[in-house]
Amino acid sequence: MAGLLEIKDLHKSFDGTPVINGFSLEVTEMTVCCVVGPNGAGKTTTMDLITGRQKPTSGTIHFAEEDITGLGEHEIARRGIGRKFQVPAVFRELSVRQNLEVAYSKQTNALKNMFVFGDAAMKRKLDEIAALANLTERLEVEAGTLSHGETQWLEISMVLMQNPRVLLLDEPVAGLTEGEIMKTARLIKQLKETNTLIVVEHDMGFVREIADVVTVMHMGTLLAQGTIGEIEANDRVREVYLGSEEH
Amino acid sequence: MNLYHNKLAQWAAYGVFFAIIAAVPLFVSDSFLLNQLGTYGVYGLLALSISLCWGFGGILNLGQGIAFGLAAYGMAMTMQMQTQDPESNPIPPFMLNNSLEQLPALWEPFWSTGLGITLALVVPTLFYVIFGNLMFRARVSGPFFAIMSLAMLSALFTIILDMQPYTNGANGITPPQPLTILGTPLDPYGPATYWLVCGLLIALTVGAKLLTQSKFGLLVQAVRGDAERVRFLGYNVAAYETAIYALSGFIAAVAGCCWVILVQYVSPAQLDVSFSVTMVIWAGIGGRLSLLGSMLGAFIIQGGQSYLGDALLSTWLLGLGAFFIIVVRFLPKGLAGLLEMGLGALSSGRRPKQLEPADRANAMAGE
């Protein structure tokens, strides 16, 4: 089975300093691929390159057999790649409900959206996702007043409202309590039934829980790839990452 | 729940406002006063346009005089040409004084009243679409956009001032007769003209209010909060910014047309930087996040200017400055925000805002 997302020989440098150095990755549909690596390994930059926030210096990115290298952020998002940011990015001045409504992006045309006043399919989906993320009671409050855990879940819910084929989650459990982490892990396993996920995460316990494939990045390139067992047994990985970073 | 956020209560407040402004000619018999109140409708339109663009769209626009002024010139040209005769007297007097022997091609379309008014509305709107699209696609935003709009306004001001033979420079254009529509002259001091301006204000306010409640309205507010995030949800942010900016320009263009109908005069003063900044002050004081608040802000400031300004002279400006500083410092949402807080305190007895600092610290600790 061909990969849903295929990254080939990606390079990116900032002012001549290489950050991504010939990174390649193939993500199979309906799997969870975890990307790990020490700080500065290029994980978030890779996310930026996939979602169009940065343009690669060279290399290609294919999504569902289409070349998406160099497209704008909104064009890539429309093709079905949703992203949750490392620092939770929600609209703080809007209510939780409005945040979810914004994320429902079936109709993206500015002129047509002037005549959209709520739509039944959207409301059903909103209720469903709010229930999944335990936000039903919080729908009317301003998103800026949510706790950190709720904000993380709101942003994951927003990505779900978008209904993407691939979800990129950048540190979805950073700053969450043990209980919230377990809940997030359960949610991700449930999502795997219908979606493909790429998760950047530092928490190895969480990675062990959810990952089908683990990709280790180091100095902007692929250091190792395999199941969590294989990765934990890999000497080079232990050297650069697990030994020094696990806490 | 805070009554301020109740949609039905909001519409009720707008309904009361509309009823009051529409009833004014029934109680005002002084035609000069009625004409002056009509110009307040123009200020209301301008405040409405700033509230949409700055309040909802987050686009601080210090050059709203561009649309207002261009439309005012278009309307003045239309009215001027209504008094010219193609056979015996085809050239406006000021052009003859500037030794033009032929009507400039720029003026030809204004022989037709319909085409003239259409141009007065379409040209500024199209200008906003093109200028906005150029800026927003290059992701120019915030103070940088404000500076660009200011620069563009100053450039237009200079061009109009400089093109003396075509625009009559600093003297401006003073059409000798009121606008005639379908054979009927619109007396600028009569109730019909007041109701025309009032009707346009009501219709555009209702349209703008509906717009803010649509999905589009929600999206421009999201763009105001975090444009970057909106892009990753699949929306073309530049298209949304251009649309709200151009719509606000259209409303300002309608205001420009009404202005000339009421005062029968246009000059580069309508494109003066200080007037465009004044529009932003109205919205800032009244409450830029509220369409109604912004309009009332315009009425309060301009009313104060007309009545207190004459009595207090420069003390008025000092007072206005102090008032503005107080509002910006203590009421970032303007006078409408004061009402929101008041109604919020009434409905709950506590202010949810007070939770915020603790939560922000909480969120930062998590990162």
Automatic annotation (TrEMBL), chain A:
Keywords: ATP-binding, Nucleotide-binding, Transport. PROSITE patterns: ABC_TRANSPORTER_2. CDD domains: ABC_Mj1267_LivG_branched (cd03219). GO terms for cellular component: plasma membrane. One of its GO terms (molecular function) is ATP hydrolysis activity. Pfam families: ABC_tran (PF00005). Residues 5-244 form the ABC transporter domain. PANTHER family: CONSERVED COMPONENT OF ABC TRANSPORTER FOR NATURAL AMINO ACIDS-RELATED, HIGH-AFFINITY BRANCHED-CHAIN AMINO ACID TRANSPORT ATP-BINDING PROTEIN. This is ABC transporter ATP-binding protein. It comes from Chelatococcus reniformis.
Automatic annotation (TrEMBL), chain B:
InterPro entries: ABC_transp_permease (IPR001851), ABC_transptr_urea_perm_UrtC (IPR017778), LivM-like (IPR043428). PANTHER family: HIGH-AFFINITY BRANCHED-CHAIN AMINO ACID TRANSPORT SYSTEM PERMEASE, SLR1201 PROTEIN. Keywords: Cell membrane, Membrane, Transmembrane, Transmembrane helix. It is found in: Cell membrane. One of its GO terms (cellular component) is plasma membrane. It comes from the Bacteria. This is Urea ABC transporter permease subunit UrtC.
